[in-house]
Design a protein that fits this description.
Length: about 350
Amino acid sequence: MTLERAEDALLVQRRALTRDEAMSVAELPLDDLPDLIALAHRVRLAYCGDEVELESLINAKSGGCPEDCAFCSQSAHFKTGVDIYPLLDLDEVMEAARATRKAGATQFCIVVAVRGPDDRLLDKVIDATLKVREETGLEVATSLGILKPGQAEQLAAAGVRRYNHNLESAREFFPQICTTHTWEERVETCRMATAAGMELCCGGILGMGETLEQRIDFAFELAALNPVEVPINLLDPRPGTPLGARELITAREALQAIALFRLILPATWIRLAGGRELVLGELQALGLYAGANALIIGNYLTTIGRAPEADVALLETLGMPVAGAEPGEGRFIVDADGAHPMPPRRPLLQIQRR
Ligand code: SF4
């Protein structure tokens, strides 16, 4: 009855689940996972359609971050052996953007490992954004950490479509993974990004030791910020970090969480990101049937992903078109003039939140 009630709420009444309803679904035994996945897939199709959005990342400045996020190999607090380099020059960013385009993705995210950008870094990212958009037609997202007043407006004016700033985990759990800034500071930056007119990309990492209840809280906390996209990373414990010896979340728990996020965030792009290869292994397709409708392709910030062609081939097998592909053009969009018509962003169904 629990799943039927959730289905009735989301697909008949078209209203958001309450926390109690979501918790009841979460408490179903993992042996019921196929039914939960089937419901998440129906909800995804009803609210978002069958398209899958592809994005690649460039780690434009790696390592040496003054913050102490316990999962992160780029923190200067831990000895992880990660590459440390200053901001890449424009040519290197453009090379990555061209490769992104060639791989069939439509989104390109420029990520820098800092607490927040200073003026010089912001100017360089703005220059890169303008050039990437002009030359490749890719939609640009940026992930530059905690913003100061006025910076979000500058990014929006340069055409940054989406700003990524993850809450990382539930408010209650966050102090266990970071002491150098607060969860509330992260929320503040998310609000600045939205107020400046950028789409908000905001998610986090599962499997850091949070409880199932905290995962549900986390999804509702994200929903309250109304993100366009929620990236879900599955902890890939990095040697040298405080979470380096943590056991992996199981594939079944990860699929359960992805499906629950879909039920709580029915109209959002839910993007499978770092750790998906490690945790889901050959069950990548199930991640896309469990409600995810976006992928990071290629490599992650400090870890290796799988070949983009493998993901594109998987989508073809599943009959899930790449978002942004024009009918008749195949999966890849390479307009002569670089223009890149994007699909409508409005969800197919709207959700009523109480
Ligand atoms: S997650 Fe971001 S803010 Fe935290 S240590 Fe890593 S790069 Fe720095």
